[in-house]
Write a structure and sequence with these properties.
The complex is a heterodimer.
Chain A (H helix, E strand, L loop, with lengths): L1 E5 L3 H13 L4 E6 L11 H5 L14 H5 L2 E5 L2 E5 L4 E4 L5 E2 L2 E4 L3 E3 L12 E2 L4 H9 L7 E4 L3 H12 L4 E4 L12 H13 L3 E3 L4 E6 L5 E6 L4 E3 L2 E4 L3 E3 L15 E3 L10 E3 L4 E3 L13 H15 L12 E6 L2 E7 L9 E7 L6 E7 L5 E7 L5 H9 L4 H6 L15 H12 L11 H8 L4
Parallel strand pairs in A: 1-2, 1-7, 2-3, 7-19, 9-16, 10-11, 10-16, 11-12, 18-20
Antiparallel strand pairs in A: 4-5, 5-6, 8-17, 13-14, 14-15, 21-22, 22-25, 23-24, 24-25
Helix pairs in contact in A: 1-7
Chain B lengths: L2 H23 L1 E3 L12 H14 L5 E2 L2 H26 L7 H4 L6 H12 E2 L1 H4 L1 H20 L25 H22 L4 H24 L16 H19 L5 H15 L5 H23 L4 H27 L20 H8 L2 H26 L2 H4 L4 H8 L12 H31 L3 E4 L4 E3 H23 L1 H4 L3 H6 L1 H12 L3 E5 L9 H5 L6 H5 L15 H5 L5 E5 L4 H5 L17
Antiparallel strand pairs in B: 1-2, 1-3, 4-5, 6-7
Helix pairs in contact in B: 1-7, 2-3, 7-11, 7-12, 8-9, 8-19, 10-19, 11-12, 12-13, 12-17, 13-17, 14-15, 18-19, 18-22
The structure holds flavin-adenine dinucleotide and iron/sulfur cluster (2 copies).
One iron/sulfur cluster binds next to helix 25 of chain B.
Chain lengths: 448, 606
C-alpha cells in the first residue's frame, strides 16, 4: 500500500510517523515544495532573531527519514486526479497512490488591498517568506505590520530585535481582543508599547504605495495617514491552502470538508491540519483550527484510520499557548474576549502588570470552564482533568497549587487568586495544596 | 549596545591587552640576586653563579624570559655536571645530604620560575599593585560596565543575535573537528616530550588512545548515520570565537606546562596571595584568583540576563558562593591557620589526587583537622553523592556547587548553544565519559595498591611494564590538565561550555549513573503544549535533544542532564519543569506517552 502525503508540516509528518509505527509495510511518500525536511514553522522567528539556525528548527535529524523508510519528495503538487489516484507534479511523472492524505496547511490572508502583491510586501508563513524578510532587512528604515494576531506580534518582535522601527496596525481597539479578555488584551497592548513598538490600535490598512519600481514604499491607513516604510508585513490571519485542489472533486468550503474520521468525500482521500474543515465540529470547537496541536492530533488520528483502525478525531479540551514578546500565555478551556454572560471570571493581576491568572466558571452550575494564564505556567494535565470533570470552582481554587508549573523558587500566586475570589464571593476559602509534583501525580493518577 | 557598554568593552580589551603584554614588559638580569629565593641549596647557588661567571653571562640583562630561560638551562646543566663530578672526585662534604649537594634534574622545574621572578626588573615587578589594577581591576570595571546596563532592559529571554555574532555562532562540523583533532594530536605529541624518556609509556598511551578512537569509529560505522547536525552557520565566520578559543588554549598550556613563561602574572597577583595566606603566589594561586574573579563578574552577567528567573539567580548565586568561599578563600585561610590546603567541595574522582600518597600522608599527618578532611572526602564519595543525587539529581553538584560547572554557567553561558545535539555526539559522549571514569578508578586503585604495599611496579615483563607512578602522571597530564583545562575550557567557543562536564568528568559520570537509575529528579513535560520549536535543545549545554522528548509528552531522565534549568527558561511555551518526586518516573518517561491516542499494542519501529 502506498500512502502519499501532501505537506511535510506537523500534520503530514505526524501522520507519516504514526503510520510507520503502526505498520512497517506501508510505503510512505511525503511531498512538499517548501523545504527538504520537516522544520518547525513556529520557530521561524527565532531564526531571524539569531536564537537558532534553520537546522536547529528541524525536530528530527536528516537520517531519521531514511531509517524509518519515509520517502521525502521535494515537488509541488499541481493537481490531484482522484479517478486515477494520481498526483500531478510540477516535475517528473505523476505519482500514483493508494491512499492520500492532504496536509497542505495555510496561506496568509490578503483582503484585496491595493498594492498587496508588490515587492517588499509579504506574510510570515513559509520558509520563503522568512527569506524574503531577510533579503529586505538590510538598511530597512521602518516596517509596517498589518493585523494584530499571533503572527503579527511575532513579526514585530523580529524586526524589533534588529532595531528596525516597527509600526503595528491593529484593527481592533485593543490587541487580539477577540481571543484575549479585556484585561489581558490591555496588558499585551501595554507590553508592546513598552518595547517601543509603534502600536496603532483601531487602525486599518487602506493602501500600499508603489515606489514606481514595483516596491512598496509606504502605506496609507484608513485615517488617511501615510507611513513611509521599506517592508509591509501582512499578518491578518491565514486560510487553508487548497487552491491546487480545484477541479479534483474533493469537496471544500473554506477548507477541505472532512468527517470525524478525517475522510473527505472521496474514498481513500483524507485531509488534516490547517487545511481541514470539520463538517461537524465537536461542541465548543471551531470547524477550522489552524494551530500546531490540532495538526499533530489529526496526524495521529488519521494514521489509525489509514491503517484500517477507525478512530474518531477527538481533540479533547481546547488548549493553546503563545508568547507576546516577554509574556508567556497559556489557555486551557473556554476563555475568550467574548465569553457568555453566565460565565464569571476570577481575575488576578500582579502589580508588575506582566502576570495574570484568570479562572472562569459557570455561574449557574459552579464548575470551572477555563484557565487563562499570563506570565504564569499551569499544568496541562491538571487543568484538563478539572475541566473534563466539570470540577466545582471552589474545589479547584483550594487545590490550585496542583496546577502550578512555574520553575522552582518562583513565587506562587495561588493564594492571591483565592483572596480575589473570597473578596468577590464573600467566602473564606483557604489554599490546601501548594505546588508539588508528587501531589499533582497523586491527583492525576489516584488509583495505583 | 549603549555607550556605557561600548566603553566597558573598550576598557576590558585594554585590560586584556595589558595582561597579555605584561608577560613581555620586564627584563631579567642574571646576578646573585637571581638566586635569592627560598628553598635553594647554597651549593647549587654558588655553583650556578660560578658557571655564569665562566660563561660570561653574570650580570647580563635579558630582554625576554625565553632568552633568560635558555641561558639558565645551560647554567643548570653545567652546574649539575660540575657538581656531580666534584662529588665523585672529592665526595659530598660532611653533614650535607646528597640532594643538597648534587643538583638533580627535578630541581630545574622549581628553580627556573623562581630565578625568573627574582631576576625580573621593570614595570611589572616594580609595580605589581599598579599592574594588578591595570589588568584585574580594569578587567572587572570594563566587564561590569558592559554587564550592568543589561539590568535596565525589560526582563525576559534575551538570546537575540547569538547566531549572528562572530563570538558565539560556532563553527561547522568540519573545521571544528579539525581544530579538535589538531589539539588532541598536539597534546599527545607534547605529552611524549613532557614525560621525558618514558617513550614506552607514551607509545602505550598513544596505542590505547588510538584503540579507543578506533572502537568509537567502528561502532559509529556500524550504525552509520548521515552527517551530524552541524553547529555551523553558512556565510559568516566565528572568527572572534576562534580567537578566544586559541587564547584560552594558550593560557592553559602556559599555566599547566610552561609556568616559567608567565611569572609576570604570578608577580602581579603576589600581593593578594601575601595578604590572604602570607605565602608567595604560585601559578595555582594565579589561576584560582582569575577563576574566581571571572565566575563572579560573569555570574553577575548571568543574573542580569535571567533576572526574571529565580531558579537561575539562586543557582548562579550558589556557584559564585562556592567558588569564592570554598574553592578560593577557605583553602587559603586553612593554610594561614597551618592546616592542609583543602577544597571541601571537590570530590573524588574529579579531585583525582585525593587518594595520592602525598595527599593522604599530608592529611593524616596534620592532626585532627586533616583526619576530618580525609573522612569528609570519603563520606562525600560514598554517601553524599548517592544521597543528594537521589533527592535532587546531579544538579545539586554540577550546577550548584562545582567549580568547573560554575565557570561553565558563568563564563560559558554565551556558548551553551554550541554543544552538538546529534545522536552520534551522544554516542561518543557515553563512550568517552565512562572510559574516563574507568581510567580514574583503575588509576586510583593502582595508586592505593602502591600506597599500601609499597610496590610501584604492578606488572613487569619484557613486553609490558605497568607502573602506578607513570599511570598517575599520565592521568594528570591527559585528563587532569589536557582534557579538563585545555580542551574543557579552551573549546567553549567551539563546542559549548560543558565539553569537560559532558565528555570528560569522571565525577559527572558517577553522578549521572545515580541520576539515571536511582533518582527522584526528572524534567516534566507539560502535556501537549510543545511546539517543537527547538529552543530547549539548542540551549541545552549538555547536548541533550530535549525537544525529542518534549514533543511526545515524555518526561526526561538523562544521565548527563546537569539541571541547569535553561531548557525550561528558554521554552516559549512553558513546557518544561525541573522537578523531584519519587512517583511514576518509569511510566512518565516511557517512550510514546502518546499525546492523544494511547494504544499499548502499538509496536514501535523507530
Ligand atoms: C510564524 C508562525 C508561528 C506559529 N506559531 C504557532 C504557535 O505558537 N502555536 C500554534 O499552535 N500554532 C502556531 N502556528 C500555526 C502552526 O504553525 C500551523 O497550524 C501548523 O504549522 C500547520 O501545520 P500543517 O502541517 O497543517 O501545515 P503546514 O505546516 O503549513 O505544512 C504544509 C506544507 O505543505 C506544503 N504544500 C502545500 N501545498 C502543497 C502542494 N500543492 N504541493 C506540495 N507541497 C505543498 C507547504 O509548502 C507546507 O510545507 C504558527 C504559524 C506560523 C506561520
Ligand atoms: S536538559 Fe535542560 S536542565 Fe538538563 S542540562 Fe539540558 S538544558 Fe540544562
Ligand atoms: S519544549 Fe519548549 S522549547 Fe522545547 S521544543 Fe517544545 S516548545 Fe520548544
Amino acid at each position: 500500500m502506498h500512502v502519499a502525503i501532501i505537506g511535510n508540516g506537523i500534520s503530514g509528518i505526524t501522520a507519516a510517523r504514526f503510520i510507520r509505527k503502526l505498520s512497517s509495510k506501508h510505503r510512505i511518500t511525503v511531498i512538499s515544495a517548501e523545504t527538504d525536511y520537516f522544520f518547525s514553522r513556529t520557530a521561524l522567528m527565532y531564526i531571524y532573531m539569531g536564537h537558532m539556525r534553520h537546522e536547529d528548527t528541524k525536530p528530527y535529524e536528516d537520517w531519521f527519514w531514511k531509517k524509518n523508510k519515509i520517502d521525502l519528495l521535494k515537488a509541488y503538487v499541481k493537481a490531484v486526479d482522484t479517478n486515477n489516484k494520481q498526483l500531478i507534479l510540477d516535475q517528473g511523472r505523476p505519482l500514483t497512490y493508494d491512499k492520500l492524505i492532504i496536509a497542505s496547511g495555510s496561506t496568509p490572508n490578503k483582503f484585496g488591498w491595493p498594492g498587496q502583491d508588490l515587492k517588499r510586501v509579504g506574510g510570515l508563513y513559509s520558509y520563503q517568506d522568512l527569506e524574503n524578510m531577510e533579503n529586505h532587512s538590510e538598511g530597512l528604515q521602518r516596517a509596517v505590520i498589518v493585523g494584530g494576531g499571533l503572527i503579527g506580534i511575532e513579526m514585530a518582535e523580529m524586526y524589533h530585535s534588529r532595531h528596525i522601527p516597527v509600526t503595528f496596525l491593529v484593527r481592533e481597539k485593543s490587541y487580539w481582543n477577540a481571543v484575549l479578555p479585556a484585561e489581558e488584551s490591555d496588558m499585551v497592548s501595554r507590553h508592546i508599547k513598552e518595547h517601543g513598538i509603534d502600536l496603532r490600535l483601531s487602525t486599518e490598512l487602506k493602501e500600499i504605495i508603489d515606489d514606481g519600481n514595483g516596491n512598496a514604499c509606504a502605506v496609507v491607513t484608513n485615517e488617511g495617514e501615510r507611513i513611509e516604510c521599506g517592508y509591509v508585513g501582512l499578518t491578518a490571519g491565514v486560510h487553508p491552502n487548497i487552491k491546487f485542489l480545484e477541479g479534483s472533486g474533493i469537496e471544500s468550503q473554506r477548507g477541505i470538508i472532512v468527517n470525524e474520521y478525517l475522510e473527505t468525500n472521496i474514498p481513500d482521500v483524507y485531509a488534516i491540519g490547517d487545511c481541514a474543515q470539520a463538517s461537524q465540529p465537536r461542541p465548543g470547537r471551531r470547524p477550522i483550527e489552524a494551530v500546531w496541536y490540532t495538526g499533530r492530533m489529526m496526524g495521529e488520528t488519521v494514521a489509525y484510520n489509514v491503517c484500517g483502525k477507525q478512530i474518531a478525531y477527538d481533540p479533547g479540551i481546547w488548549f493553546n499557548s503563545a508568547k507576546f514578546i516577554d509574556i508567556e500565555y497559556q489557555i486551557y478551556g473556554d476563555i475568550s474576549g467574548r465569553m457568555p454572560a453566565h460565565y464569571q471570571s476570577i481575575y488576578w493581576e500582579h502589580k508588575d502588570g506582566q502576570k495574570a491568572i484568570r479562572i472562569a466558571y459557570d455561574k449557574n452550575e459552579g464548575h470551572v470552564v477555563g484557565f487563562n494564564l499570563m506570565g504564569v505556567r499551569y499544568r496541562h494535565e491538571v487543568c484538563e482533568k478539572w475541566l473534563r470533570d466539570k470540577t466545582p470552582v471552589e474545589e479547584v481554587l483550594q487545590n490550585l497549587g496542583l496546577a502550578n508549573f512555574d520553575p522552582e523558587f518562583y513565587k506562587e500566586y495561588e493564594e492571591e487568586v483565592i483572596k480575589t475570589y473570597n473578596q468577590q464571593a464573600g467566602k473564606q476559602l483557604q489554599l490546601k495544596k501548594r505546588r508539588s509534583l508528587t501531589a499533582a501525580l497523586k491527583f492525576l493518577n489516584p488509583i495505583r | 549596545m549603549s555607550f556605557i557598554q561600548k566603553l566597558g568593552l573598550g576598557v576590558f580589551v585594554i585590560a586584556l591587552l595589558i595582561f597579555t603584554m605584561a608577560l613581555g614588559l620586564d627584563q631579567f638580569k642574571l646576578s646573585d640576586k637571581s638566586l635569592e629565593f627560598g628553598g635553594i641549596s647554597e651549593y647549587h647557588k654558588q655553583e650556578i653563579l660560578a658557571q655564569a661567571e665562566k660563561r660570561g653571562s653574570l650580570n647580563k640583562v635579558y630582554g625576554a624570559n625565553f632568552s633568560f630561560i635558555k641561558e639558565f638551562k645551560i647554567l643548570l646543566k653545567d652546574a649539575q655536571n660540575s657538581l656531580a663530578k666534584k662529588a665523585k672526585e672529592q665526595g659530598v662534604p660532611e653533614g650535607v645530604s646528597d640532594w643538597d649537594y648534587k643538583l638533580g634534574s627535578w630541581k630545574f622545574k622549581e628553580y627556573t620560575p623562581a630565578a625568573l621572578k627574582a631576576s625580573a626588573q621593570g614595570p611589572v615587578s616594580g609595580n605589581p599593585v599598579l599592574f594588578l589594577f591595570l589588568t584585574f581591576g580594569l578587567g572587572i570595571i570594563g566587564g561590569l560596565l558592559y554587564i550592568l546596563p543589561i539590568f535596565q532592559a525589560i526582563p525576559g529571554i534575551k538570546n537575540n543575535h547569538i547566531y549572528h555574532n562572530p563570538m558565539t555562532r560556532g563553527l561547522k562540523l568540519g573545521p571544528r573537528a579539525l581544530f579538535l583533532g589538531a589539539t588532541i594530536i598536539g597534546v599527545l605529541v607534547y605529552g611524549i616530550t613532557y614525560m621525558g624518556e618514558k617513550y614506552i609509556w607514551s607509545a602505550i598511551t598513544g596505542g590505547i588512545a588510538l584503540l579507543i578512537i578506533g572502537l568509537v569509529f567502528f561502532f559509529e560505522n556500524q550504525r552509520r548515520r548521515n552527517p551530524a547536525k552541524s553547529a555551523g552557520p553558512s556565510q559568516m565566520t566565528a572568527w572572534l570565537g576562534v580567537l578566544t578559543g586559541i587564547y584560552l588554549i594558550a593560557f592553559y598550556i602556559l599555566l599547566y606546562w610552561k609556568p616559567e613563561l608567565i611569572t609576570a602574572w604570578i608577580t602581579i597577583v603576589n600581593p593578594v596571595s601575601k595578604a590572604l595566606s602570607g605565602n608567595d603566589a604560585s601559578q595555582w594561586f594565579l589561576y584560582g584568583l582569575l577563576y574566581t574573579v571571572i565566575v563572579l563578574v560573569m555570574g553577575i552577567r548571568m543574573i542580569a540576563k535571567y533576572r526574571h528567573n529565580r531558579y537561575q539567580m539562586i543557582r548562579t548565586g550558589s556557584v559564585m558562593f562556592f567558588q569564592t568561599a570554598f574553592a578560593f578563600l577557605l583553602p587559603e585561610i586553612m593554610v594561614r591557620l597551618n592546616q592542609p590546603y583543602f577544597d571541601f567541595k571537590n570530590i573524588w574522582p574529579l579531585n583525582y589526587t585525593f587518594f595520592f600518597d602525598w595527599n593522604i600522608n599530608n592529611l593524616v599527618n596534620s592532626g585532627g583537622m586533616g583526619v576530618f578532611m580525609m573522612v569528609w572526602g570519603i563520606v562525600l564519595v560514598v554517601i553524599g553523592v548517592p544521597l543528594f543525587t537521589y533527592f535532587f539529581g546531579k544538579r545539586w553538584y554540577c550546577s550548584w556547587v562545582c567549580g568547573c560547572g560554575g565557570l561553565a554557567e558563568t563564563l560559558g553561558d554565551p556558548y551553551r548553544q554550541l554543544s552538538d545535539k546529534s545522536l552520534s555526539a551522544w554516542r561518543f559522549e557515553r563512550w568517552i565519559i565512562h572510559g574516563v571514569l574507568a581510567f580514574a578508578i583503575i588509576m586510583t586503585v593502582l595508586v592505593l595498591y602502591t600506597y599500601f604495599t609499597g610496590t610501584r611496579t604492578i606488572i613487569k615483563s619484557s613486553l609490558l611494564t605497568i607502573n602506578s607512578d607513570s599511570i598517575r602522571t599520565w592521568y594528570g597530564f591527559l585528563i587532569g590538565s589536557a582534557f579538563a583545562g585545555v580542551v574543557g575550557t579552551g573549546f567553549y567557543p567551539l563546542m559549548g561550555n560543558r565539553v569537560w562536564c559532558r565528555f570528560g568528568c569522571p565525577l559527572a559520570a558517577y553522578l549521572g549513573l545515580v541520576q539515571r537509575f536511582k533518582s527522584r529528579f526528572r524534567i516534566t513535560t507539560n502535556g501537549g503544549q510543545c511546539i517543537s520549536c527547538g529552543n530547549c535543545s539548542t540551549y541545552c549545554e549538555m547536548g541533550i535533544d530535549v525537544r525529542w522528548y518534549a514533543q511526545r509528552g515524555q518526561d526526561i531522565v538523562r544521565s548527563s542532564c546537569v539541571g541547569c534549568g535553561v531548557c525550561s527558561a528558554v521554552c516559549p511555551r512553558g513546557v518544561l519543569r525541573l522537578e523531584n518526586s519519587s512517583m511514576d518516573v518509569n511510566t512518565r518517561t516511557s517512550e510514546v506517552r502518546t499525546l492523544h491516542i494511547t494504544d499499548d499494542k502499538i509496536e514501535l519501529v523507530g
